[in-house]
Design a protein that fits this description.
The chain has 482 residues and is mainly alpha-helical. Helices cover 64% and strands 5% of the residues. The protein contains 20 helices and four strands. Strands 2-1-3-4 form a four-stranded mixed sheet, sandwiched between helices. β3 and β4 form a beta hairpin.
Length: 482
Amino acid sequence: MQDSSCKLTIENAFKKYWGVIIACMITPALLYAVLQILPTHDDWCSTTTPDFRPFFIKEHFFFFGYHWRPFDTWIGYIAGRNPQVLYPTFNHLLVVGGHLLCTVTVYKLLLVLGFKQFSRNLATLCFFVLPATMATATAIDSQNQVYALTCDMIAFLLYIKMKRARYIVWILLIFLATLFKENGLMWALIGPILAFGFDFIDQKTLKKDLLIGIGIMVLYALAITIMPKDITIHPDYEPGVMKVVANVVKFLFSTFITIDYIYLLHAPSRNLLWAIVSLLFTLPFLYLIWIKNIRSMIGKKMLCILISMVIAVGPHLLTVFSMMHTYAGLSLLMIMMAYGIDNCQQTKKSIITAFILFLGASLTIDAHLIHESIKSGLVGKKMAQEAIQKTGKPVKSVYVIIIEDDNPKLSSFCVIPSEAFGWGIAAQYETNYQWPEEIEDTTIERSQDYKYKAEILGNLQLQEKKFDAVWIVDHNKVKVMR
């Protein structure tokens, strides 16, 4: 009798939470795959890279570099205690664990907003496996946006459920999210708009709480202004009309369409047949959700969701948008998805069939994205080992000459070899940051006589005794001059 009761309880739990349970079951496989991904590109120069400075200094608490992200610097400090063991393993554990936590929070959000059990489970599982999340879930320095979104959703849940002290808790959690990543601040506006859309607050309260949200933003801006800092705006962050248009197109494409982006967009890997196949498998489900019942979805709720989504990704649309930045708006996309499923006129069997095709295609795309990320990291590792071997013995300083690479890249999945090499930093990692102590790099144009120009420049650096060695990086090969 007891076994029967236990079995019934397990069955009920699975029936109620199957989206979360399947996500938990997939997590070990995802983590195993992701742990094989090595640092590339800006992984080598972010504040989550191994940091060997004393902890109790201003950089670990206040504005540092481009951002005020103290939690990033804390991760770098922890990784710096034992780089070969902790980096990037510690980072991956934080990101994948955070992605699962964020998935559970998405389920809770959909539950509180009143969606049906079937809809919230389907949308929750979709969030966990969606290829649009993989640029974040597989990245080494993306824990900031994972935990920022999680804190924001928890802030919203407490904002609509608490009676006393709800504004204090809401403001504190919004600020906590913002210390993970700046776009966490956007939920200071999203919270009231979403609450109004789902009738948790009236129009009068909406106006008042939006003013409070703006006040939160002003306080954050004031704090940034007061803090000592030395900011140089990177050209990529400068807004422009054409850049915004291109970013909006990228956002719409990568968010509302599921396709194998590598086979479609990365020229060296292009395989249009498989790209089309991946789209055909995901299209029935996307058609049922976004197109089939679009008229029944029009209304106050959908308008508030769309406005909230634009606000969530707005900072990225105005500056830099890549596949990683879709994550900020994906919980809102799942609300739209659950809303679409609830209003779908098709039978549950039809939706399940379409979703199984979508799920299979998504997992296949995920596996391909992860595989290419692993390959990119291994290219950087091989180049670092080659540079160390050819150098022969430890040197204090190295001048890295990078021949401009005309090969295209795609997000963090398919990275240019010189960026996987980290402009030489990957070699520091291979020696456990023992040598070289100093690295300076430059890039020269790929021309007919680029080899001659690189050697002339390298010899000049050696003759002037500015550096102990020169590494010339030509695609995925490293030539050493001493």
